[in-house]
Amino acid sequence: MPIHDPQRLDGTALSYPREGILRSSEALSWQEVVVEQRYHPAGEYTHPASSSHLICVHQGPPILLEQVREGKLHTSMVPHRGLQIVPAGMESTWRHQVGADHFHLLLSPELIQWVAADLNQMRVEILDHFTLQDSRIEHIGLALLTELAEGGPSGRLYAESLSIALAAHLLQAYSSTPRPLPEIARGLSTPLLRKIVSLIEDRLAEDLGLGDLATEVGLSPSHFATLFQQATGLPPHRYILQRRLERAQWFLRSTPLSSGEIAAAVGFYDQSHLVRQMRRFLGVTPKYLRDHLT
After folding, report:
1. Can you tell me the distance from the alpha carbon of 234 to that of 259, in angstroms, rounded to the nearest whole number?
2. pTM across the whole model
3. Which of 146, 184, 237, 288 could form a disulfide with 284 if both were Cys (CB 3.0 to 4.6 A apart)?
4. Helix residue ranges, H only, the chain
5. DSSP state letter for 27
6. Are 48 and 91 in contact (CB under 8 A)?
């Protein structure tokens, strides 16, 4: 069998070990979700029952896969971006005759329960699926994988927002929860919104998480994220990014601080992170803004 070379997101070769976990979000501060990029050579692998719900997304060419779950054998040709869903607490054995590239999305039961409770669903069960394709899971998963590959530059609020969207989709499409799910009716009051905006302004330099913000107003993270977007028109991570860019512009216009000092003051990881985000969302660099605003 030819040696398989794991690939980056852009198709170039990885300089990682060629077996097992190639990348993992465990080193980042993400809450309630773990993302892993994996490569396994041909063979048989047993995944013990986990406390998390597993979504496996196949990244390579179509592959013949056998799986044993709860004593039942499943066999299918899994296409590129084909998915498997293994609920928490279920052991599974995987067999394939060629190497397999895939990434895992591991969601905590607590996240699922938060989202379910916000939708007035108190008892939910994620159902197992051997092989399927779902563009929404694919897009959210690839966004998380890209964020992981880049070192998490958008912060944990971004990853948590994506994981909540993923959990909501799982509940709607792959659970025993009756559909359609009821919508959240209660809005975020003006005093509570002002409290959150003030908190964001005071702690803009910190790597805030949804839990930090939601606790301030006595809501679950998923409920808070929904109501905040209803009130502001932006998900929390985009609102905070916008405020960081706006404050960075003020510093560039009004102070002699260097770009690196400004990046630290407004919550970017370093100068290059600030430059990348300004180019992406404003189309200019800090130097350009300083030259033209002062």
Report:
1. 26
2. 0.74
3. 288
4. 109-118, 135-149, 156-173, 190-202, 210-216, 221-232, 236-254, 259-266, 271-282, 286-293
5. G
6. yes
The single residue listed with the structure tokens 């709860």 is 70
Structure tokens that stand for 273 in this block = 């992170």
Residue 86: closest CA among 57, 59, 122: 57
Of the ranges 1-15, 138-152, 210-224, which one carries the lowest mean pLDDT score?
Answer: 1-15
In the predicted structure, residue 244 carries a pLDDT above the cut 60: yes
Tens digit of each residue's pLDDT (9 = 90 or more) over 106-123? 999 999 988 888 777 777
Contact partners, residue 202, CB within 8 Å, separation at least 6: none
Share of the chain above pLDDT 90, in %: 46
Share of the chain above pLDDT 70, in %: 89
What does the pLDDT average to over 275-288? Answer: 88
Helix pair angle (236-254, 190-202), 10° resolution: 50
Cα 286 to Cα 40: distance, rounded to the nearest angstrom: 44
Nearest in space to 121 (alpha carbons), one of 176, 177, 185: 177
- C-alpha to C-alpha distance for 165 and 115, rounded to whole angstroms: 9
* CA distance linking residue 251 with residue 243, whole number of Å: 12
